[in-house]
Amino acid sequence: MSDTFKPEIIAFCCHYTIYNFARDLQGLTKSGFPENVKIEKVSCSGRVARVHLLRTLEEGADGVYVVGCEEEKCHNGAGSRRAKKRSEYVKDVLLQLGMEPERTEMFFMPRGDEAKFIDIAREMVEKIKALGPSPLRGK
Amino acid sequence: MVEQKKADINSKSGAIVVVGGGISGIQSALDAANSGFKVYLVEERPSIGGVMAQLDKTFPTNDCSTCMLSPKLIEVSKNPNIEIISYAEIQDVVGSPGDFRVTVRKKARYVDAQKCIGCGICASKCPKKVADEFNQRLGKRKAIYLTFAQAIPPIYTIDRENCLYFKKGRCRACEKFCPNKAIDFEQQDETIEVEAGAVILAPGFETFDARLKGEYGYGRHANVLTSLDYERILSAGGPFSGHIQRPSDGRKPRKIAWIQCVGSRDATVGCEYCSSVCCMYATKQALISRDHDREIETAIFYIDIRAQGKGFDRYYERARSEGGVRYIRSMVSRVVENPQDKTLEITYVGDPGQIRVESFDLVVLSVGLRPSLAAKNLAKRLDIELNEFGFCQTRPLDVVSTSREGIFVSGAFQGPKDIPNTVIQASSAAGAAGALLADVRGTMIKEKVYPKERQVAGQQPRIGVFVCHCGSNIAGVIDVKAVAESARSLPYVVFATDYLFSCSTDSQNEIKKAIEDHELNRIVVASCSPRTHEALFQETLREAGLNRYLFEMANIRDQNSWVHVANGQDATEKAKDLVRMSVARATRLKPLLDMSFEVIPKALVVGGGVAGLTAALALAENGYQTCLVEKSEELGGNTRFIHYTEDGARPAEYMRELIQKVKGDPLITVYTRANILDYSGHVGNFSSTISVDGEKRSVSYGAAIIAMGGEVYKPQEYLYGQDDRVLTQREFEQRLAAGRNELENVKNVVMIQCVGSREEGHPYCSRICCTDAIKNSRKFKELNPAANVYILFRDMRTFGFREVYYKRAREEGIRFIRYEPERKPHVVEENGKLKINIYDQNLGTEIGLEADCLVLSTAIRPYPDSRKLADIFKLPLDQDGFFMEAHLKLRPLDFANAGFFLCGIVHGPKFVDESIAQAKGAVSRACTILSRRQMFIGGALAHVDEARCILCLTCVRTCPYEVPKMAEEKWAIVIDAAACQGCGNCASACPRGAITVDHNTDEQYIAQISALYKLSAVAG
Predict the structure, then answer these.
(1) So what's the pLDDT on residue B10?
(2) DSSP B699
(3) A40 and B958 in contact by Cβ < 8 A?
(4) Over pLDDT 70: what percentage of chain B?
């Protein structure tokens, strides 16, 4: 893929992993959080529905991922596990549509782990970069 | 009670002065203000936060300290009934309890607090660099400074000692560059007087000056640090941005040693007491160091590991096993620096008694806690009695009352303690002050009045967009004007502008004016973060007559300008995108109603032991009707069997009086042989059915306190129950209390510690047994001076001032033999004699002790029926079966379930005075609910479209709070707004899409995302 391709990525992040416990992304100043990742704050990763992920891709995002609390530590019990399950479902849908399932992903993250948060974002950018633009882009 | 809110009752004042703005003072201030009192929070330093603000992570959860503290700081600053008076000290307190006059001297900051907007331009222009005390002098700050980034109040202060203008008469750079003319070199110190009904002292502690232990080389060797220095090194906001490095050469250390008890348990420096927290913080620092870098080897040199708090022993065991932390039981005699590479050689006595030398790259001294000179002087001015070590003297069984009536104490100034115990005591002190002033509650607080909300339903959106420069924080990276310009072209946006600081008072006024002038009905602010500022802007909307849910924030600082410093162009484009997305969402925002309901000013207390009875009495003192439910026939619990303490208390006698007081109180209804059968409702409005002697009654209450206690483990081991000479510590105490006769012929007593504690299945420390063993053995020696006492122990955990009694016990000839759990003592009966075989580590051989009496220090366990109660109230238990508080560190008295509080042994093993303090603290927390006439429930909640609901019960299974219920009359699910937490899990699980979460609707999410790719999607 050409180096000029800059994927558009949406990250659904739960209120707890990025807002309530971490200091937003204050610590990321020098760390190179990719500017093409936009954060959509949700009350709980368990609030993210399949339709949110699918619509995000349909609207033109090249990738979409969810960041929620560690499996056992979700503030709302099983919220992040539900998000994982839904993300797996969406992957399957993408596969059946002939799209790359890697365009969506679910990550568990300890509260306030900024370094991991950046790593996840970069990982997604690299992965989507390799896949190229979404076939749904601009349609 | 609630109705008697009149100031003319007497000359009492409904205000409380809290001295000290650390976590202790903050908690006291919040509790007092939230239960109807005006609070003056006086802090010596320029900002509140105390030592907790300096900490990196906290034990035993490794939670980030700042992340826990920051919301508390903001809560204090936003509370209309707390007035922070920082950079000030108390001069004098005159008058009588209920009616004090407090003189406060405010030091000149040379910055006008009304004008300073905290932008920091002054500090960036100030040419004078000074060693930064907040960073333990390991980093630099400017002569005009903010203590730390999240400081409250966010007002800069000129350090007169170092300011070039004050020293040399020229510079004034800060004055020149200040955008708001806030610098005032003419400012003078000011003395003010406030009236208050009570005073709470929480001046905190300082760490031991490690220079006094010359053999460790602190101050001489660059790589010898104190634990607080190291805390700053670990912190991401610290001098090395969280990279572990040696001060001498900036190299990464490979081996780090901690030396415990520096300035603790040490008579040579006047600190005979144990500082209670150092074992755990050293463990934490070692673990965190290894988290930073797995290559780092850590070693902790210690005498006893004191892990007596909740969850501490697990943490310690984890550090020892998987954490890879090496623990070396040895006193270090000296630390010598290698002058060439600045490594440090530690000389210590190893296990078989050999002198060993080991080198380390960095040595951390675990310095103890002591009262500050300023605090001691304050006590002197206020005529408050101090103990022999200079800490505040309190009465037995009452750890918050000082020698002067109406003046209370909390936190480390009363004695070294960890954060949870500090928070407990802080709530307790606020509760004690509140009980004293119960009849003037609510007389000095103000409630904010808002204009009537404008109706916006049916109107077309008229959106105002305000883009913030945040000084140079945003504008330094992003073209703010271009962002505002692009916003102006968006659908429904009728007004867009930019401000230097959107949060400053004048900008707030301009926003209000714009709402009026342009008839705005939706507001988007593009600035820092909703985490810190959403509530502030929502408040502005309310003041302008708009519903607070019509606000939306675009995070263009924390998640944009700060992150993409080097990439201004892309950051500007991203800001435009984020604003467009926010506008799309704002277009779809709806006003929501915060519902109000009346609070039932009554409490329920479960448990009739010392915690429950104390709580009931304190609730009654505060004027609230209380129903106390005890399952057994009699009140009194475990305390009936505790006859004396080392500090002179008589708990059993105290209990008899307490029972009389509770029974005689007209506000308290006591039910014995009673059980809770069910519960329903929500915070402020609960009801339960109780079975009393088989008869059913119903009670309603606004808050509940769980205090059902715990029990003493009945041992299966060491011949207990088979040989009459084997007793539990409690049984031994009963015989001692009965008088000398019963134990007259006993010449040899052996005690075994940790029976049923710190072992598989029960891996926690029971906290009180070491102190109990010391107490009873000393009492026994007093009665039978010729007798022998041996205490077989693992770690002696006589934390705090209890250490002094441990020392006395050794001086009095009580013998201590350490054992390892792998080689437990072995008890046998031989020819009618009771024999205890134990491996003596000093002798390196097994020895046999004969005993006339073997005393087992048995564990404290939760009651087996705790589970039942927990299930009824849906409260969580921890791994050991004790009740689980909302947060180990900062919410030790609350349950996550709003309206429920806990105290006493249900929380974990504790001493009688601790249970009493916790009970009063729980009452203080409950008063923050009971004192309110009405409460509000937020509008961002889930509701069900009954027409679409097919009763599949998916939501019932999904909801973590068990809120969705079937309403048979409607044949649909209903969600009780008061109980709903708004997490939205049900909405996304519902296969019919029948559930909507207001303010988090699918439509709002999707519109926001679509707007990123299609401009047309903004309007929808």
Answers:
(1) 64
(2) E
(3) no
(4) 98
Pairing of strands B255-262, B57-58: unpaired
Alpha helices in B437-504 (DSSP H): 480-488
Residue with tokens 């700060």: B562
CATH, domain A9-131, list 1.25.40, 3.40.50, 2.60.40, 3.40.1130: 3.40.50
Provide CB contacts within 8 A for B655, sequence distance 6+: B610, B613, B636, B639, B640
- ipTM above 0.90 for this complex: no
**Among partner residues A22, A26, A40, which is closest to B562 by beta-carbon distance?**
A26
* All domains of chain B in start order, with CATH: 12-107+189-205+371-450 (3.50.50.60), 108-188 (3.30.70), 207-370 (3.50.50.60), 463-587 (3.40.50), 598-709+863-932 (3.50.50.60), 713-860 (3.50.50.60), 941-997 (3.30.70.20)
Inter-chain touch A82–B958, beta carbons under 8 Å? yes
Query: How far does A98 lie from chain B, in Å, by closest CA?
Result: 22
Of B425, B422, B371, B372, give the one whose Cα is nearest residue B401: B425
Q: Residue B725 in contact with residue B827, Cβ under 8 Å?
A: no
Whether residue B765 contacts residue B312, with contact meaning beta carbons closer than 8 Å, is answered with yes
Q: Does B555 contact A40 at a Cβ distance shorter than 8 Å?
A: no
Which stretches of chain A score pLDDT less than 70? 1-3, 17-31, 112, 139
Q: Where are the domains of chain A?
A: 9-131
What is the helix (H) or strand (E) element at residue B334, kind and residue range? strand B332-337
Quick one: residue B495, left, alpha or beta (phi over 0 = left, psi -120 to 50 = alpha)? beta
Contact call for residues B904 and B768 (beta carbons, < 8 A) = no
pLDDT one-digit tens code per residue, B983-993: 899 999 999 99
Neighbours of B591 (CB within 10 A): 16
For every residue of chain A, DSSP letters joined together read --TT----EEEEEEIIIIIISS-TTGGGTTT---TTEEEEEES-GGG--HHHHHHHHHHT-SEEEEEEE-GGGBTTBSHHHHHHHHHHHHHHHHHHTTS-GGGEEEEEE-TT-HHHHHHHHHHHHHHHHHH-S-TTTT-
Cross-chain residue pair B530–A49, CB shorter than 8 Å: no
Nearest to A79 among B570, B985, B1010 (CB): B985
What b/e readout covers B33-63, taking b as 16+ CB neighbours within 10 angstroms? bbbbbbbbbbbbbbbbbbbbbbbbbbbbeeb
